[in-house]
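EI: anyone free to look at a 452-residue chain?
SC: sure, send it
EI:
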Amino acid sequence: MIKLNKKEYVAPWEKAFDLILSPLEEFIHRQTTSGVLLMICAIAALAIANSPWNEAYHHILELTFTIGVEGFQLSKSLHHWINDGLMAMFFFVIGLELKREILVGELADLRQAMLPIIAAVGGMLVPVLIYIGFNPEGHAMNGWGVPMATDIAFALGTLALLGNRVPNKLLTFLVALAIVDDLGAVLVIAVFYTETINFAALMIAGVLFLLLMALNLGGIRRPLPYMMVGVVLWIAMLQSGVHATLAGIILAFTIPMRPKYDAERFLSHINEMVVHIKRAYQHENNIVRNIELRSRVQALEEGVHMVQAPAQILEHKMHLPTAYIIIPIFSLANAGIPIDLSALGAIITHPVSMGIAVGLVFGKLIGIAGFSWLAVKLGFTVLPQGLNFKHIVGVALMGGIGFTMSIFIAELGFVHHPHELLMAKTGILFASVIAGISGFLWLYFTAENKEK
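SC: here you go
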């Protein structure tokens, strides 16, 4: 309902002034809706890929789009622009979130940070060993890297669907784990699955990283210079042969996290500003006609921005487009896998699909939960307050959601073997569904969130 009187206009969205959310709570809130959109888009993509529209679906994804000018152009398919371009923005947001947690959040404690790192390492090693057990030789062994990857978008979306049933710190743990996992997958791709590496482009990327660090150390706080250099960094990473989404994380870690104003100075400045605003308001209460009042409010807005760290501001602004646009588009473009029901039994029991499915579901569970348990019992780290091993088991199950990164590695490993590629994609699909559902149900029935 909208109230209107002589002095004020109160709209429902103005309640945002009273809504106080931490960055992590805001991230969870946005990811809840994003998780629903993610699942809807995945189901839609699967339905289209197994319908008469399958050919049109793949034709659209393979349409080539070119940007740039004559002599300096990038020509990629729509599918590549989504995976390498839009997802770089997603990883940029994740990088900002992780940087904040490492510097001032739960991961600021080295012992706490060690837990997701060790869990991620276990979640990569065990699935690889399981896959090699099913495929010890021949070209089928080229898919050893497929089950080591966790799809951070789907995993976060699934966990976010649980809402307040799980502690916020569990999302932080999954974010850290998934990023370490993805970085590990990127390194594997660069070393073992990249046919050619452009060292000149890698050197340019290194120089650009040093430039970003110089901007940070030089006190540059406006986002525009970082974004401009970040775009060139993304192009360099793309040309280098290393997965371009890594540019998003590198860029995020160079954005300043220190505010310009200290708290005491900010409070003093605000108190003075409020006095001036009240005085201006007494002369004319309509801000549209009161030039002084409007200028004071604008100055107040500028001060509020200055007291916040640039990384905080960008994280807040990027949440909405990432959660509601980028991730659903990503799902729609990558989840379309054709399924031959008549040969389903033979496909599932194929060594490649079995190695991937068992590696993702059981390998991730054993690796993440097992390595976490050992790390805690041996005293290398401790569980974050509010978490228990039931939570870790749930996240370990969700770690078996492979999808895009797994499919990407499968495309590289079986580029010359279409039959094995189909087996790999089917194994990824079934494993991801089983892992997502089992992880969700496990946490739904066993996890009790005591953080109220």
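EI: The longest helix spans residues 418-446.
SC: 👍
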